[in-house]
Write a sequence for this structure.
């Protein structure tokens, strides 16, 4: 991790010094993770907006690189710029209907058995996460989904460590309620126990009458 940051700092310094390739290499190293953070912060249905947010954030980082003070890791600084771009977009959003997640394409076969259940569960989790208040969602995306230490997530979000912990705690509680329907239970079409007669069923074979 220290070696990675030294590499990133070297690329950022080279960019500021005028190297035309350095920032592109820095983007290549972090682009996928930054996009994943943006997508989960904005919601799984907002792929195009997430891509635009990352593009805007990287342009801002490109222009502001000379102002990087080195107080946080370069990756933390990039995450902060991307998260801020996403939060700005969320704040500017007007109320609009939720866009449903796309289902299988016309040429995509339905997922069998366990794969289908796993897919449905993943969609439920994504939708529940998208339903959280954006401050809680952003904290959970960084800490629980991307594994950032709480201290680093606090740097990204520009808030105290205790605030990140509180947002994560409240977000997890909301997720637990939203995902309560995923708790294991009897199958929907399960047959009743043998000791409980089906409605309208006659006496079982060999069953005796009343005493």
């Amino acid at each position: 991790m220290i070696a990675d940051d030294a590499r990133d700092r070297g690329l950022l310094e080279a960019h500021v010094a005028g190297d035309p390739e350095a920032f592109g290499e820095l983007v290549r190293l972090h682009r996928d993770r930054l996009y994943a953070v943006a997508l989960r912060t904005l919601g799984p249905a907002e792929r195009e907006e997430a891509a635009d947010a990352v593009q805007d954030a990287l342009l801002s980082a490109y222009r502001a690189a000379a102002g990087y003070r080195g107080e946080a890791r370069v990756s933390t600084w990039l995450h902060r710029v991307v998260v801020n771009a996403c939060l700005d977009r969320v704040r500017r959003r007007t109320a609009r209907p939720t866009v449903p997640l796309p289902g299988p394409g016309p040429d995509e076969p339905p997922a069998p058995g366990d794969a289908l259940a796993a897919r449905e569960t993943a969609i439920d989790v994504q939708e529940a996460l998208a339903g959280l208040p954006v401050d809680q969602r952003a904290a959970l995306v960084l800490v629980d989904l991307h594994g950032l230490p709480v201290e680093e997530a606090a740097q990204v979000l520009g808030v105290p460590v205790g605030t990140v912990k509180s947002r994560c705690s409240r977000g997890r509680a909301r997720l637990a309620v939203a995902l309560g329907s995923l708790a294991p239970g009897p199958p929907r079409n399960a047959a009743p126990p043998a000791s409980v007669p089906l409605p309208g069923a006659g006496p079982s074979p060999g069953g005796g009458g009343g005493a």
Residues 22-42 form the longest helix (21 residues).
